[in-house]
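Table S2 (text version). Query chain:
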Amino acid sequence: MIENCGLGAGNLVLSATLTASSSAGTLPVSNLGSAQGSASYAWRALVTNASVTLDLATPSAVRVVSIHRTNLTGRSTWTLALWTGNTLTWTQTAPTRCTNGQAVWILPKGLTASRIVLTLNDPDNPDGFLSVPLMYAGDLWQPVRNFSTSSTSSFTLGVDEATALSGAEFPQMRWIQRKLSIAHQSYGAAEVPTLLSLQRLAATGTNILFVPDPGSSTPETDSLFGRLSGGEIGNPFGAADRRSWTFTHTERL
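Corresponding structure-token output:
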């Protein structure tokens, strides 16, 4: 069953006390608080089995945990444990199904935690270490109605191209960035304050997670974590309780 899209803006990683079982001296776990997705700003574990712990100031809703721009292979696994005080309330081990450096774990609704422990295991990783530049943990806000089928996806490309006198072309790919343009014409008026709050947060450069379908079996390929640029909120249907908002979402590199 298709679920309405979800937006994750309250990243608990940014406010939690972070500890890790292993860290490189110049690439500590505190780097997960950086908005940059480069490996040079990452948390790096010196082994291929390591954990990161988030201690939260107060129990908070947890619907999704995700990592991005990571070097995990598709054969890796992860174990997630949620604690409330000294009580383990939920835990599970699963394949990461990491795709293009991204793994996304959608949890059952209604879970809360004061401590989140994520353990990564990738014994066959050819690098011999684990690198996690970006992480999201927190809730998902889902609008009452879903986005429009007129929404589009594309890529932004960084390509240096030299052209010989003969006309021969020599492109060199530098980077590729996924991009979504999400059109929505069915927000309710009561949802507008949430949209405005999202735009204010996005304007600070904070990364936001977009999950097109939290019920999808492939959230690691569908989801996007990065900068959101919102357009104007409109009222295209007059007296009807419908508000429009189109935003552009670009993957953080």
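Notes on Table S2: The mean pLDDT is 95. The chain has two domains: 6-138, 152-251.
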